[in-house]
Amino acid sequence: MVAAVCLGSALVSAGVLIAILRIAYEASAANAVARQQMMVIGGIGVVAVLAAGGFAWWFLDRRLARPVKILAAEAERALSATITEIITKHGHALGALPERVARLAARHAKGQREIRQAMAAAAAHAQTQVARLEAILRDLSEGILVADLDHRVLLYNRALLWLLDAPDKLGLGRPVFDIIERGAVERTLAVLVAIASEDEENKPGGHTASLECLSVPAGVALSSRMAVVRDQQRRISGYVITVAGREGGESRPAGWGDAALPPRPEFYNFDPPPAPAGASLAERLDTRLDDLACVVFDTETTGLEPSRGDRIVQIAGVRVSGGRILRGERFERLVNPGRAIPKASIRFHGITDEMVKGAPDTMEALTDFHAFAGEDVLVAHNAAFDMKFLSLAAAETGAVFDNPVLDTLLLSVHLHDHLAEHTLDAIANRFGVVFEGRHTALGDAMATAEIFLHLVELCRERGIVTLGQALKASDSVRSIRRKQARF
């Protein structure tokens, strides 16, 4: 802005000088020599004024305006992550300001670390109690499911995973009816609500009823019971289903699934996103980014040209809900592409033909991933690349991914347009994100999930708070969009 004002001032000054010279030129009509000298001197003056204005514009834009913009963006980034390195433009005229901002960033990072340590210490006792509860839930042989009145899963345990045998459909915030038949749940819940409403004494023990239902999609009969859940005001806020077993009387095998899950899986969330499953697109666009239910995913492939026959060899994803990464809810599959994997690609991701020999084919893997993702928002880095593979496979798999899609690459460019590098590695380095396995689908998905949460925080500070606003901001990065269209 300052540079533009300087250039405009120079143009106005040159115009005024030309007008004065013209008046003087006409006044000296009788003296040809004077007129010629005046033209030479005037021309030199105009050029000098324009040159001075141009230099002022260049100096202020390159040495002040742009460096200030970069420094402001870096200061904003420092507020959203514990970083101390401030990236500045070389050859600036800001003096010691960047170094002072870097010191402030270091103090902020230190303060954030101290706050986290204090919060961790204060929550130690509570964490101990939570750990005990989790241990009880984890080791119970009965399956437990808690849902709200919108029939969204709020809590479940490991036993339920095995009893329902539908790990890709069971998840926090997901519809109960994806795993248990709708009719039986609704009928039994209606009976319990009617009984509870007639309970004038409002007994704290509540009421339970047998629930005769089938699992979805296996269609296995479950031995289960249901009870309503009341909130602190004693209003019915949801229900609990306990599953003692399934048809055939199978019991949970010892040590089942222990190696497949983290030590403390996050299988509960009593503050789900406000928009229930099945909400319209307009309702979802108004959902706050902090409340989004997302699946952050990544693929490894035979090559970089999906339109020319390259195929997926690995796909993985992790669920993000309510602003936290649910590390216990993740999906990972090797995929048999039905063709040889080029050596150049093997050197990149390390997945060989032998490794995928007995893996599911594209149809099975993407059908399972479609079940895992459900209606959640899909998030990926350079998402157009991964989505192109899913789109091209739809005719073969029947799995149509029409979910809203957010791209961490586009969000990064929109938020940090002063930076040249927006690769996954560069963004991870800026936010201090450490990869658990670079160039593995799950490792890259986990890192992308952490990056996404950092970007959501930056979006909030820029006034980008809803899914619709984030999609609009992403669409504004037209240069990257044009490149992505080539996939």
Write a structural description.
This protein has 487 residues and is α+β, with helices and mostly antiparallel strands. It has 3 domains: 118 residues, no CATH class; 128 residues, Beta-Lactamase (2-Layer Sandwich); 204 residues, Nucleotidyltransferase, domain 5, CATH 3.30.420. Helix content is 48%, strand content 15%. It has 15 helices and 10 strands. The strands form 2 sheets. A 5-stranded antiparallel beta sheet has the order 2-1-5-4-3. A 5-stranded mixed beta sheet has the order 8-7-6-9-10, sandwiched between helices. Helix 1 packs antiparallel against helix 2, helix 11 packs across helix 14 and helix 12 crosses helix 13. The chain is globular, with a radius of gyration of 31 Å.
